Structures are given as C-alpha cells and as structure tokens.
Amino acid sequence: MNSWRDAILNDFVPNVSKLTLVADPDNLLTEEKLALELRRRGFYLIEFNDPVEFRYAYESKYRLTWDRGEHTDLVVILWLQDAELESLPYDLLQVGRKVSFNLGDLFPSLSYPVIEKLDRSLLDALYDAQRKSHLDRVGDNATKDFILRHVFGIAAELIVNEVELLRALLRLHYRKTHIPLTLCQRLIQVLKSNDRFKAWPLDEIVPDDEAFFSFLQERWPVFLAKLGKADHVSEDSQEYGLKYSGPDHLPFDHQDIRVYIDNMFLEGKLTPVDATETEVDADSWVQIGIEAVGVNDEELRISGLFNLVEKELPTSESRYSDWTTFALKWAELSSLVHCSNTAQHQIRLKKVGDVLNATFAGWLGGHYASLINLPPTNPIMLHHVPRRMARDIEDSGSSRAALIVVDGLALDQWVTIRQLLQKQDANLVMRESATFAWIPTLTSVSRQSIFSGKPPLYFPSSINSTNNEEKLWKQFWEGHGLSRLDVAYQRGLGDGDASSVLGAAIHPGKTKVVGLVVDKVDKIMHGMQLGSAGM
C-alpha cells in the first residue's frame, strides 16, 4: 500500500451498506484527505457524541431519506474503542455494519502512546518512513527519535553547535509545526546531554513558538550593537535586559539563519528595533530589522511581503492549514497596505486578492465540508473554540478561562491592534492562529457556534438571532461539569471603563469561565464610509 489511508478505504465500498458504525479512537476518519476521499465516494460522516443531538441529525437528515427509498451511505463515528460500539442505540446496531480502526494496526512497529500524540497530517511522512525502514518493534524513546528524524527532520544527536541548534528550532517554529510535548521533552533531553547547550533555555523555547520568538527578539538588539561596536559590546546580559538565559549573541548573519530572520520580520513574528547607533549600509539585509522614520522602512516591508505572499499563494489542492497560515501573512500585508494608502500598493493588493479569492472559492467547494468533524486540538472551525478551552482547563488544572469575541474585527485590523498592545506591554505574549468561520458568515451563525460549541445544525430555531448566546454558553459549560453560577456572559461591550462594566457580571472567587462580546468595532464598521483603509 502506498498510503496508510488505503487500509481504511478498502472497507468503504459505496452501496454495500447504508449505515456503517465505526470505532475510531484515534480520529483517523476526520483526517483531511481521508475525509475528502470518503465524501467523494458518497459517504457522509456524523459524530456520535451527544445522544440527543445525534438523534436529531440522524432522524431529520438521513432516516427520512431512507424512508423515501433513496440511498445514502452514512458513517457514524464513535471516538471510542471497538468494544464500546455496543453502547450505540439498538436500532443502529440492528442495521449497521461494524468496523474499527486504530493507529496501532497501521504502525505496528512503533510505540502507540507516542504516535497517538501526532497531528494526523504528519502520518503520511511517518508511514512512508516506516515502510522504507523495515523496523522491528521499538520502544518509546526509539519511536520518538524515529519521528523526530523522519517526520520533523531533526536528528537531535547530530546537533553539535549553536548554528545547527538555531537552524533546527527556526525550521520547527517558523512553520508553526505542532510537535507533541512528549517529543519536545525527548528533544530537550538529548540536547541537554551536550554541554554546549546547557545554558540555553531549552525547556521554554523548544515547545513554545512565542517563547522562541521572544528569545530571538531580545537578542536582536545585541546583534545590532555588536555590528556597530564590535570591540565594545558587553558580555553582561543584564545590560540588555535579557529575560531568557543562554548566549547573548546569536549567529543571525549565518546564511542558514538569515533566510528565516528576513521572513520573520516581514511577517511580524519579529519587530524592528531602534538602532540609531548602528551604522549599516542602505542595502544591508539587517535593515529589515531596524526601525526607521519615513517611508523607506514601510516600503521595504510591503515589497518583501508582496513577494512572499505571491510566491506562497495556496492552491485548490492545499491543506486547510496552508490557508490558515497564509491568512496571517495576508493580514500583515493588508494592514500595511491599507495604512500606507498608496494607490500602487492598493491596486497590486486587489489584483493578488482577486486571484486569491477565486482560488479560495474553488477550494471551499471541495474541502469545506471535511472540516466540520475535525478534532478540536487546534481549532479549525468556530465551534471547536470552546471545546479546546474545555480541554485546556482539564489538562492544565486551571480553574479560569475567558473568551473575548471582538465582533466585526477583520484579521488585518487585528494586526494593527496587536502592534499597539505590544508597544504598551513588551512582555505580553500572544499565540496567534486562525480558524474558518461558518458559511454564511453572519454574526448570528458564527457567534452562536462559538458560544455553543456546536455546528449551526443544532440551533435552527435561533439561527437568525444572537439572543440565545448566554443560554448556549452556559449549557456548554454545564455539559463540562460547571454550574451555571460559575459561568458569566456579557455582550454590548466596547464603551466605558472595563472594571465598572464587567463588575456586575464577574464575581472574583466564583466565576470560572467568562464569555464576552465587544461589538464596538462592528458598530464602527457599519458606519464606515472608507472601507478597509478607513477601519
């Protein structure tokens, strides 16, 4: 077999059984390419989670179709072991055929507790490596080393100097690759065995993108100072206010490192700094990381971002993660162009945007339906957001969380706000990602999906209103073990002092989860005459 999916797809032949019951404890059927192929073959996936919600969808969408004598291939997915299929309703068990799939069967040579933590989009690389390697059965550490080498391209034992370590971390974090904590811990363990890296803050910068970017950010001024005063740079990290341990000076100018640093400044992952005492040539590569007064700095970044996004435009065959990653870069560019208000840039942005929108519309037609049942590990759609919050609370033991919905705020407008927040508090850490909205992108649809943790199918009676948000929000958290009295909700925010406005809704020591809607931006947007530039 050329793909791990083949072993699963062999069990899905159209028109054999109208109902298939699947025990899928590892969320294999929701992997993007597999879900697309199942849909192409005419199979519709539905998750069995809440019995009442399932019964509503089953009876209204599929049972009625069968009663009319029409055929559809329905797949009911249970995220549990095969033995627990028997917990499904009796009428389903009577007519449905039963199958089960798990990672242990697909990767028999590797440690199951390790591979189950992997993002399913990485299984292709793992399966290909396993097929070529002819492995005997190996344990946890050998499995971790195998995955690090063949999936993430990191041979930890071969990293012997700072350039190699920095290059490996840049490759990992720049692409926003999700690496499970258990693999991070193994990587850290191997790296710490090398005396060269014992001073590095590996526990912080290996598992956390934003911590790594902050580590680079605070050392960039030190690098620039060394360029300007090669013989007078202090080795005392306290002089530069470094928060993270490790070497003061990093080899930013090494050819393997520079290519990442350029793009990170362009994309807003790193912020240019004031370096008035550093003299560099006008065409030096480091100019991208130096804050300048005037249009040159802005023009340099806009030109660089245009080149970057035009080179990285997603295609009709791209994965959903390619689109969400690209959206953040597009937002950076859009924000710069709208703020510059230069006609030439506006025309170029519209030209690229027209191509982008046409491609995205085609992609949605073939891929959008496969996103609904994806696991909420990294929220891909709006109803995944509270599910992820609930999981984080459970995993961390933390008793408090807040969801703030800024209604009407576009992604490029968030870029502008983020920059202001960072200037107000340099220690503020923000971990950014993007999700897909529900179509149609109406306020009532998206906001109810966020606060309920459900697809719109399950709130048809209030689809055109936002008045049920508080009830849906509290119902969601009651389903996750909280009392209604532990949950707060407030909307219509954006004016007045936050402490006085929220004082009546949030009770210190009592409130554990709060959902807030700031609709000030939405009101401004509806009265705006100048479009995105005006916003």
Describe the structure.
With 535 residues, the protein is of the alpha/beta class. 48% of the residues lie in helices and 7% in strands. The chain has four domains: 4-103; 112-210, no CATH class; 218-354, no CATH class; 372-534, no CATH class. It has 23 helices and seven strands. Helix 21 links the parallel strand 6 (487-493) and strand 7. The termini are far apart.
SSE topology sketch:
Blueprint: H1 4-9, E1 19-23, H2 32-40, E2 43-47, H3 51-67, E3 73-78, H4 90-95, E4 97-100, H5 103-106, H6 112-115, H7 123-133, H8 140-150, H9 162-174, H10 181-192, H11 202-205, H12 209-228, H13 255-266, H14 295-311, H15 320-340, H16 343-367, H17 384-396, E5 401-406, H18 411-424, H19 443-452, H20 469-478, E6 487-493, H21 498-502, E7 513-518, H22 520-526, H23 531-534
Parallel strand pairs: 1-3, 1-4, 2-3, 5-7, 6-7
Helix pairs in contact: 8-10, 9-13, 14-15, 15-16, 15-18, 19-20
Unreliably modeled segments: none
Distance between the termini: 53 Å
- What is the total number of structural domains? 4
Radius of gyration, rounded? 26 Å
Q: In total, how many beta strands? A: 7
Largest sheet, if any? 4 strands, parallel
The H-and-E topology, N to C, reads as: HEHEHEHEHHHHHHHHHHHHHEHHHEHEHH
Beta-strand proportion: 5-15%
Indicate the overall shape. globular
**Mean pLDDT metric:** 88
Tally of alpha and pi helices: 23
Provide the structure class: alpha/beta
The level of helicity is 40-55%
Output the strand order for the largest sheet.
2-3-1-4
